Amino acid sequence: MTVTDSEAPSLADLIAVLDGLYPPGTAQSWDQVGLVSGDPDQPVQRIHLAVDPTLAVIEEARDAGADLLITHHPLLLRGVHSVATTSAKGASVTALVVADLALYVAHTNADVARPGVNDALAQAAGLEETVPLAERDGQSLGLVGDLPEPMSLEAFARMLAEALPPAPVGVRVSGRADGDVRRVAVLGGAGDDAFDDVRASGADVYVTADLRHHPALEAREEARGGPPYLIDAGHWATESLWLQGAADRIRAALGARADSVDLHVSTLRTDPWDFLVPSGDPAQRLGGPR
C-alpha cells in the first residue's frame, strides 16, 4: 500500500483510537501504559503489533517500515536511569528513536477490556457465556464460562494446546487426566494470586500462566486431588491471542481511514524458553508418584 503522509492518520489520531479501546485509566496503578516514544504529529502508515517490545520485535517493526509499534507488555515498567546502548533497555529506546518508531503500550487496560486479552483466551478455550472471574479496583479480572459439553482434563488440555500458538514448553497440567471438565476459568498472563476466586467460581480447571511452585502446590493441596485442576499455558502464548483481535478493532475504529494504514501482527515468539528436555517418567523418580 502506498499513501501520502497527508492521507495517513497521525499518531495523535491513533492514540485517540487506542485510548478509546483500552482506556489508560483502567490500567492497574502500578502499570505503565500509553505512548512511550514518538511524535503525536507524525503520520502513521504502518502499524506493528506484538506482545513484547524486545530488540528483535523492534528490529522486525523497523525493517517492515512501521511507524507505530503496539505492544502488550511495557518497555519501561520500572525505573530506568540510563538509555545507553550498553543495556538492552537502552538499546531498545535508542532503536525506537533512531527509527522514528512510535511505541504504544496497552497492558492491564487491555486485560480488563471487553473484548480484551481474556476474551481471546476464553474463545481459544471454547467457552460459552463468560462472566468476570473476579473484580479488583472496580475492574474485571479474568473470565469464567462453560464448555458446550464436558470432556476429560487431558482432552481439554490437548484441545487448548492446539488452539494456542506453539511454544517450546507447551502446557503444564496438574490434575487427573480423566478428571471431568465443564466449567473453566481463564486469566491470561500471571495468575497464581487468584486461586480463591477460582475456587469460588466453581471452575473445574483454571487456565493461566507463570504458576509458581508454592502457590500452585498449596492450591492442589486445598483441592485434595480434585478440581479445580490447573493448566499453566505460558505467559506469551495466553496473551498473544489478543493481538489479531486488537488489530481488527483498530481497523474498525479507524473507519474510512483504515484504507490508508497497514496493520501487521508479529509472529515472532517472545517466549523466553527455547527447548524442553523431558526428564523421564516421574513415577520412577524420587520414590514414585505422590
Automatic annotation (TrEMBL):
- Where, in this chain's numbering, is a divalent metal cation bound? 72-73, 111, 235, 239
Q: What is this protein called?
A: GTP cyclohydrolase 1 type 2 homolog
> Does the record bear Metal-binding in its keywords?
yes
Its keywords, alphabetically, are:
Metal-binding
* Top-rank taxon: Bacteria
Note the Pfam families from the entry.
DUF34_NIF3 (PF01784)
Subunit organization: Homohexamer.
> Which InterPro entries does the protein's record reference?
DUF34/NIF3 (IPR002678), DUF34/NIF3_sf (IPR036069)
Q: Which residue stretches, if any, does this entry annotate as coiled coil? A: none
Gene3D superfamilies cross-referenced by the UniProt entry: NIF3 (NGG1p interacting factor 3)-like (3.40.1390.30)
What family is it from? Belongs to the GTP cyclohydrolase I type 2/NIF3 family.
Looking at the UniProt record for this protein, which Gene Ontology cellular component terms does it annotate, in alphabetical order?
Answer: cytoplasm
SUPFAM superfamilies to which the protein is assigned, alphabetical: NIF3 (NGG1p interacting factor 3)-like
GO MF entries: metal ion binding
Claim: Metal-binding is one of the keywords in the record: yes
